Amino acid sequence: MNLHLEHLDKQLGGRPILCDLSLTVDEPGAVAVFGDNGAGKSTLLSVLAGVLRADGGRATLDGASLFEPATRRQIGYVPEAADPPGHLLPDEYLDLVAALKRAARPPAQILDMLDWPSLSGRRVAALSLGQRRRTCLAAALIGSPKLLLLDEPTNGLDATAMAALAGLVTEHTRGGGLSLIATHDEVFAERIAARRLRLVAGRLFP
Fold first, then answer.
1. Helix 129-140 to helix 159-174 angle, to the nearest 10 degrees?
2. Angstrom distance (rounded) from CA 202 to CA 31
3. Nearest-angstrom CA–CA distance, 142 and 57
4. Which tens digit of pLDDT belongs to each residue from 160-204?
5. Is 101 helix (H, G, I), strand (E, B) or coil?
6. Percent of the chain scoring above 90 in pLDDT
7. pLDDT exceeds cutoff 90 at 103
8. Engineering a disulfide at 82: which of 23, 68, 108, 133 sits with its beta carbon 3.0 to 4.6 angstroms away?
């Protein structure tokens, strides 16, 4: 497993957000990115997920460009908003994402960790923030992605859901995967034994 970011640049509204940002992760695990509000953590994940286009630089996963659609199928992304279409049932949302990714839904044991039965009978619009996050996390795990991009994943989660999230990230690592997590949650980063980095002035520092 190798994630390589080289000289990434991104401006928003004429303001530099990512500035010659580079990073290499050459083994499975979790990497927690800390930084002040507005530092660019969400922008970094959005660029890697293909939601935003980088203004310069390159990003590869196991040698393949993350900016190519075929490689993006190896990514599971949960944005901070965690806002899937409200008119859908969680199961309908999973089926939609599975069809788009041409991949199978997560196995039953993964859905059990997310307490899926408590979610599946209600429309997404009726779910709490934490429940919507669990729905989006289940969708992100479709296709057994190599790379998970999680933006403030513990927001809105109770202690039980947070334990489930930590378990899922740990299982992803044991399976050879990598998780890149934008967070303010030091306790969660410690719980998942994450490598810590800080985003300052558009660059990553230990």
1. 10
2. 17
3. 28
4. 889 999 999 999 999 999 999 999 999 999 999 999 999 999 999
5. helix
6. 89
7. yes
8. 133
Enumerate domains of the chain plus CATH numbers.
28-52+68-194 (3.40.50.300)
Contact 192, 30 (CB under 8 A): yes
CA 99 vs CA 72, 76, 94, 96, 143: distances in Å? 15, 15, 9, 5, 11
Q: Which residues pair with 34 in a beta bridge?
A: 198
Which amino acid appears at position 184 of this protein?
A: H
Measured distance CA(73)–CA(103) in Å, rounded: 9
Radius of gyration of the chain (CA): 16
**For the chain, counts of helices (H) and of strands (E):** 7, 10
**75 in Cβ contact with 149 (< 8 Å):** yes
Q: Which helix (H) or strand (E) holds 127?
A: none
Model's pTM, two decimal places? 0.95
Distance, CA of 98 to CA of 142 (rounded, Å)? 6
pLDDT tens digits for 30-63?
A: 999 999 999 999 999 999 999 999 999 999 999 9
CA distance 204 to 76: 22
